[in-house]
Amino acid sequence: MPREATLRRETKETTIEVTLRLEGRGEVDVATGIGFFDHMLSAWALHGRMDLRCRVEGDLHVSQHHSVEDAGLVLGAALLRALGDKRGIVRYGHAYVPMDEALVRCALDLSGRAYAQVEIPFQPALGPVGFDYALTHEFFWALARGAAMTVHVDGLRGRSNHHLCEAAFKACGQALRSAVALDERLGDALPTTKGAFDGGSP
User: Fold this and answer.
1) How do the domains of the chain map onto residue ranges?
2) Which phi and psi (to 5°) does residue 26 adopt?
3) How far apart are CA 46 and CA 26, in angstroms?
4) CB neighbourhood size of 8 (10 A)
5) Residue 199, SS3 per DSSP
6) Residues 6+ apart with CB under 8 A from 165
7) Which helix (H) or strand (E) holds 74?
8) Distance between CA atoms of 35 and 68, rounded to whole angstroms?
9) pTM of the entire structure?
């Protein structure tokens, strides 16, 4: 059976609908009202080889914050639901992604514990800004909370905010592609010495 999930979340700030399929080909249909964020989520899904449909209606007249953070929460929750009981998964994943002068590393653990450490050297924006790059941190924290996973994203070097941000989303997708993969040697066993994923230390 394909591992997939469909979720809808509605608040006074955002209405979000997501369908995520882990065994995909990177087919994406994303509309958040923020063009650059659409591009980032598309790159995330493509490089994770996940099929993604995402619709976000948010209070962009206030700011981009609610739309980006809530999208992360719902995407993470969809990922967690699609994983089911996590039997047979690799669990850990990591990736280095270069984009011209930028280099970003992502390492993650589908641990049942939510934690995000995001260190990306974004530069102060000059002139009109189409995307608030500071929200990259909020997105990964929300994704970690929704998916109950640990994620570290480190911008090792870079000057272009665009390149740093895009490399971060691509690296996360690549790392997830490895982590959600099924390991035939595990069969239906859980990838933990504890014997359960319950929010403790597996």
Assistant:
1) 4-179
2) 80, 25
3) 4
4) 11
5) coil
6) 40, 120, 122, 131, 133, 136
7) helix 65-83
8) 12
9) 0.94
Alpha helices by DSSP H, listed for 121-193, are 135-147, 161-179
Q: What is the spatial distance between Cα 67 and Cα 8, in angstroms, rounded to a whole number?
A: 14
In angstroms, the Cα distances linking 91 to 14, 83, 144 are 31, 10, 14
Report the CATH fold assignment for 4-179: Ribosomal Protein S5; domain 2 (3.30.230)
pLDDT tens readout for residues 158-190: 999 999 999 999 999 999 999 999 999 988 888
DSSP assignment of 14-59, as one string? EEEEEEEESS----EEEE-S-HHHHHHHHHHHHHTT-EEEEEEEE-
CA distance 50 to 98: 21
DSSP state of 141: H
